UniProtKB/TrEMBL annotation:
Pathway: Cell wall biogenesis; peptidoglycan biosynthesis. The modification N6-carboxylysine is found at residue 220. GO terms for cellular component: cytoplasm. This is UDP-N-acetylmuramoyl-L-alanyl-D-glutamate--2,6-diaminopimelate ligase.
Amino acid sequence: MILSELLHKIPVLETFGNLSSEVSEIVFDSRKVTEGSLYVAIKGTVSDGHSYISSAIEKGAKTIVCEVLPENLVEVINYIQVKNSSKTLGKLAANFYGNPSENLKLIGITGTNGKTTASTLLFDIFKNLGYQSALISTVEYRVGDEIIHSTHTTPDVIRLNQMLAKAVESGCEYAFMEVSSHGIHQDRIEGLHFAVAGFTNLTHDHLDYHKTFEEYLKTKKRFFDELPETAVAITNADDKNGDVMLQNTKAKKKDYALKTLADYHGKILEVDFNGMLLNFNGKEFWTTLTGKFNVYNLLLAFAIAVELGFNEEEVLQAISTLKRVKGRFETIKSDGGIFFIVDYAHTPDALENVLDSINEIRTKNERLITVFGCGGDRDHAKRPEMGKIATRKSTLAIITTDNPRTENPQEIIKEIEAGVEPQNFSKYTSIPDRREAIKMAIKFAEPKDIVLVAGKGHETYQEINGVRHHFDDKETIIELYKLMSK
């Protein structure tokens, strides 16, 4: 693309060089520069991209976008000085790929829990309604029927625009994406045009990154603050932070709830491990999904589909044929009558929601055994909280490893144990090896008992000291149960 076209509607402070030059690609990592690249120097949290401008030029970059111009400008190189390189990168990527988010309806879901489920449900609902869509989630990226390996909840803005351009090219009319707090804070959604933004909830998470809950809240809110007037913002009225999200948005405001009056109101009529009978806006339907937290996810998906112009009945018809999302309250019933549940719950709120959902369904004649851990090199404050919740709401809690990363698993377990209340000391044990912990749960379980294995859900690896080892909770349960049943 010609540089002057690429800079269309982008505010610049100063330019040096030839604006009619060709740009072969946009990069913000100097190691990925090739001949004819435009290199964007970004001031990151770990390193400053301005330090790598010379390296980028040596590798063939012909255009440099930066906030601070180098002392010595190279004559044959184009320099574009901007106020904020990170925000400019998003606009450059959007222009380079033909502003694909304006050529389909882009729907973003943010919040602590439920982003993956709500986005995936929407993708599946629209497939059932007969529409080609794209999905950008923690579990996978999809363009129509093509599945692309997922690397981040919210990919970098260049990859995002690449995928959205591919979606437009493939005839997709809708794209559903998770919008993480990291993605908002790091300007990974800059330059994207959202038709609808949905908010699930806000609870304790990622405080290792945002430092305070207030900062985390402000980051999520920024997504809604920056929406255009043409967008629709849909929030959870049952969450105390729901209204905060809508305070300064220019978008049309809508809400959904189970407990309070809202534009989209839901009721649980019946619930068991096989599914739920629900009522949304006065209309009854059955779903194979279960758990109160899933009612919120379904209600948000329903609200979004209706706001996009679909009839309530046809949306509910599409919802009633949905299957469960991988690793989200995924159930396995063994031949011996033990009920296993695999769930991604890795925050205090998510773990509490899953345990509450199980306790609402079970008759209390069965025991509830919970296997869980906490990730290493992440938010320490949530560990004791999760220890308290798991031991309070389970018959037995087995504390184990999640992804210890570079931390000592025993130290993580100690921090979880610190939250266990004295009256629940007899209700837990700790086994650092996750496979052995699952084995212990199976050994301890009797027919009709429920075993929840929480924290990793869809993940197929365990990260220990920077190395990812194959580990799949569901696969491990099935394999160990077969071995132990012989």
